[in-house]
Amino acid sequence: MEVTEDQVPSWLPEPSRSSDSQPNVQELNRLLQLQRDQLGNITQNLPIKTILHSICQDIEALIAGSYCYVMLLHPLTGQLNLKCAPSIDSSHRELFRGVIPGPKSRACGTAVFADQPVFCSHLRTDPRWKDSLAIADILAVESAWAYPLHDANQHPSGAIGILFETSKQPSPIEARTLETAAYLCSIALNQHISSRDLKASEQRFSHVAASIPGVVLQAEFTPKGLPYFSFVSSGIEALCGVTSDEAYRNFNSVWKRVPQEDQQRIFKHLENPASAPWSVECRVTDGNDQLKWVHLAATPEWRQNGKLHSLNCILLDISREKEAHAQLELAGIAFQSTTEGIVVTDHLCQIVDANRAFCEMTGYSRAELLRETPHLLSSNTASKQQIDAIFKHARSVGHWQGEVWHRRKNGASYPQWMNINAVYNAQQAVTHFVIVAADVTDIKESEAKLRHLTHHDALTDLPNRKLFKKLVDHVIDTASDAQHCAVLMIDLDRFKHVNETMGHQEGDQLLIQVARRLQETLDDTAILARIGGDEFAIFVEQCAHFGAAEKIAMQVVDAMEYTFELGGRSFFTTASLGISLFPEHGFDSETLIKNADTALHQAKSGGRNKYACYQPEQTERIEQWVRLEPALRNALESEQFEVYYQPQIDALTGKISGAEALLRWNHPTEGLISPGQFIPILEEIGLMTRVGNWVLEQAVKQALVWRQSGFPNFRIAVNIAGPQILSGGLVELVERLLKDSHLTRDLLELEIVETMVMQHANAAQPVLQRLRELGVRIALDDFGTGYSSLSYLKMLPVQKVKIDQSLVRDIPEDPNDEAIARAVIALSHSLNLSVCAEGVETYEQQAFLRRENCDQLQGYLISRPMSVAQMNLWLQQQISIAL
């Protein structure tokens, strides 16, 4: 039970505020923080100058343009003198000396004289400053506020003031802040004075108390009944690990060391105002958190109203006396209360006592066990011989411990962990044996379960990665020269979608159903394992060739195409598989799993719901990834990236109408690296947003340079990656770039990939709509390679569709591509969208696209992507041709 004081902030009265300008929440929070900080300083008994200095600085921080200071009233001269002024120049401090309180004694003198706040917003016309205008000129101030401070008897003891270089009337929150500061200063000063007066008397009494055995203390109680120590002798530290200074500061530092039940016993003696001196035995914890017994003798003093005024106490440490008695009681309690079985035998191994736990463990009553030997628990002759050997060892070396199998009264055998210790008399002869026994049946079962869990997946109960590798390695180690095996890695497609939309519980159910279906699909010779997340693995011990493994992969793919029931709804998922063969693709489990996983990623990148066999060149691509990734992380800071530009021309006039910004990487040793090699790495390691934003900034800056150079206006098209849209901040970046560059907003075109929009439509649509509201154009890139949903063309704020080069490449040889391109152009125009064809490389393609009214052309026929310098030459050539 802890005695606590009310929170001090509640003592501070609420200052009046005008109803038409209430402080906002932020202002009130700042004021509350001021109270908390300064009350914390006061509670810590910091030096009074430090506290006043801190209050003044806090006020200056809260009230802009203020110079805060504190003046104190001298008890003999009755004059006000400066106590604290952190921001007022030291050369001006004499101006604040010897101010006599009166009705015209500036702000602080008037506040102390009138015992009320003073706000002088125009010093030049304020009568309270009529005789001090010269001082105002020296200080260069135009307004002054002050609030009186009060001593413990609520008499004015000084003032806190604020000066301003301009005329200023306080707002409600500023007036309240000054009032709060005055109360905080008053509290700090009163505590300082009280502490100073008490210190002298305490020192005199402490010398007397130090000579008295034990601890002498006096506890006093406020009118509200809150206790505090008015005297504590130095012996308190040895008793409970709290110094007398700590006890003075915090009554609870000692009181909390008294257990709650002992506190209640003490409280009972304090309930009767007529009680005479009393004593009680109670406990306290020392500095090492060890309990000590103390004899508390107390003499109470009562107020006239019947409330307790003080308690004069002497505490004597009686721990040693109590310890001997407690040890005897504790031994008996422990013997009967412990959950472990305890048996005591004599030197002949006959049982002389047994506790309740041992009786419950064996099924025998205490009476049935007395005068018996542990042979009673033996299940056979061999067990009896083992017990004899155990006690012989314990008699020889003094102890034994180990596991034995015993028999209960009902005949059931059980494992028991037993500790035996010999007890010796003064002549070092064995007098007794103490046996501590524990039934470890549950532990044995838990160990078996743990061994199973160590090697099996907790959700599906399939072998885990650890056991799967052991099984594969065991088969490989014992395989014949002609034996062939296969490892198939399985990854569920769209499993993340299940977790995100239906929750992890439904995701777990899907994994359980998948495991069951795979078990039903495979024969008994195949080993199925779950190796993590949504990944499963199959090991086929006898697999003569790839065709056999391929057959199993096809069975798995087919099995996954049937629906799963999740939460009362039908759900479809598919699986992608990677296959590696032994010995063709590896000679151990680690290599086979790694290569099968590589093939799995190849299958997923090929469109999912497929299987692929490991090819050595896949490892080369991975090694290339590993080689490029470290350099790629530093490429931006090392200025290795460069933006190239590929022109887009008007299909009818042949004039430039746009240019697409394309990222290139100049590797310091490998030269120019294809975007197809490093863009996927950027996306995978999370740098696409940062690099993509850099490309956007460079493109906008270059567009401004071309415009200032006098080149014809044309749009700059910049590819925007999915992470840029989804990560947030893209709209703000575009808006800032347009504002800084003054680029015509319609001349910036952002290209988005169709597949990304399809996958993240809900998240992407609001971002694209905000971009369109800025005035920039949105183009749908690579149209025709993904879902090509007409609904998304209507829903998204796009102005242009770009026909993917894969649909242009075989024009005019492939009539299907011609039909698709013709349909895309017609559809886009019907929706008021312009069309740009990518990958135009022949005049035949150009002629076809012109006939179909395609708006823009882009490709090698017009120009390859160029550096800025090359693009400048190309633009100049176009101007020359036009002339």
From TrEMBL:
EC numbers on record: 3.1.4.52
UniProt region (Disordered), positions on chain: 1-23
Gene3D superfamilies: 3.30.450.40, 3.30.70.270, EAL domain, PAS domain
NCBIfam families tied to this protein: GGDEF (TIGR00254), sensory_box (TIGR00229)
GGDEF domain segment(s): 483-616
Annotated ranges, domain EAL: 625-879
Enzyme class: hydrolase
Protein name: cyclic-guanylate-specific phosphodiesterase
Keyword annotations: c-di-GMP
PAC domain span: 278-330, 400-452
Pfam families membership: EAL, GAF_2, GGDEF, PAS_3, PAS_9
GO MF term list: cyclic-guanylate-specific phosphodiesterase activity
Source domain of life: Bacteria
Domain PAS stretches: 334-370
